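User: tokens in, sequence out, please.
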């Protein structure tokens, strides 16, 4: 068994205008897991992620707190707890917190890989 307490994991704090905290919870590099990596993104009220894509990985989000919107390849959808979103490899995407509380979502990369950059920033 592999167990992680997300509140004990050090995160990467991204500065405005794309203010958020990114935590890698499990990945091949941290826990030796295979086909995916999982983490959490916490976006404060009024902030957003940068628009970006991952060429070789699918990305999924599972919203657990807060409300907002997501854009995947120019298609927008509302986010609220219980919503699951999928972005295929290469799809440009961006998350927006439109609420007055933090937007929290677990993210999954399959296959893993994009989380490596976050891990480098945590280890500095």
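Assistant: Sequence out:
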């Amino acid at each position: 068994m592999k167990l992680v307490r997300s509140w004990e994991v050090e995160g990467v704090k991204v500065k405005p205008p794309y203010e958020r905290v990114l935590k890698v919870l499990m990945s091949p590099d941290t826990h030796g897991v295979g086909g995916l990596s999982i983490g959490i993104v916490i976006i404060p009220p009024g902030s957003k992620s940068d628009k970006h894509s991952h060429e070789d990985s699918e990305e999924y989000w599972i919203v657990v707190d807060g409300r907002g919107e997501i854009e995947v390849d120019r298609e927008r959808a509302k986010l609220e707890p219980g919503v699951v979103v999928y972005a295929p490899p290469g799809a440009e995407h961006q998350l927006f917190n439109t609420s007055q509380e933090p937007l929290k979502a677990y993210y999954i990369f399959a296959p893993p890989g994009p989380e490596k950059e976050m891990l480098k920033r945590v280890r500095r």
